[in-house]
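Shipment paperwork, digital attachment
Item: protein structure file
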Amino acid sequence: MTTVIKVGGARAVDPAGALSDIATLDDDGEDVAVVHGGSTAVDDTLERLGIEPEYVETPSGVVGRFTDAETMEVFEMVFGHLNTQLVAGLQSLDVDAVGLNGVDGKLLYGPRKSAVRVVEDGKKKIKRGDHSGTIKQVNGDLLESLLRDGYVPVAAPPMAGADEGREARSASDSASGDEPGAEIVPVNTDADRSAAAISGELGGTLVLLTDVEGVYEDPDDPESLIEAVETSEEWTALEDAAEGFMGRKIMAAEEALDAGADEVVIADANADEPILSALDGGGTHLYQEALQ
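Attachment content:
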């Protein structure tokens, strides 16, 4: 079983504790894969370049980044830098880490969405020129090969995006040369959902590290932490309690569990031994049976 760790990209998240725990798990012979975010760093870089980040709301009420061509270039630059820094940090702890993005080996693959439905001033509209995508396939063989050889994969967006209207093919089909493929372009995709897709492919436990202790029944009351979600009624209450960015993490958790992960933990990246404490019962634990 593999533990997939998603290290958040918020300003308030210090990855040092997570890297130390990853080194401990690796030293104990555990299979570990890492996925990281970095949207805050993207926003900071856009600001330094004088580019205003644009966020849009979908008809379902989810707020996300609109990634035009210029923003996509910044996204690639920033995530490449962050990936290298995390890999170097793990290498400093004697972990054989290997940095990947979703384009490498079509690790994360699916259609590009060049147009998205948004809500502006209460009206539904189609906004074109987006560089984002929906993950349909994960190259699990690539990850499992690295894990078998003792490496810790450190993965991140962007994903390998195929033009709309062209059916995504598996990595094995692509490698065989059976048919010409769609043009592949790097496109933005959510890091939590990337971690969910990878965890669903590999099975085991997904730990989503963030800047709070977990999901609170009352977001204003830190004593109201939801510790476990094991029934459909508890899942409904969890969704009702999740606000803002936490709603996206619950969406990712559901995708992971639906795809084959055994458990998802949402926990504090800044806690002492954040990953080890999460695996030992800290944070909010979500189980497959809650979706049945």
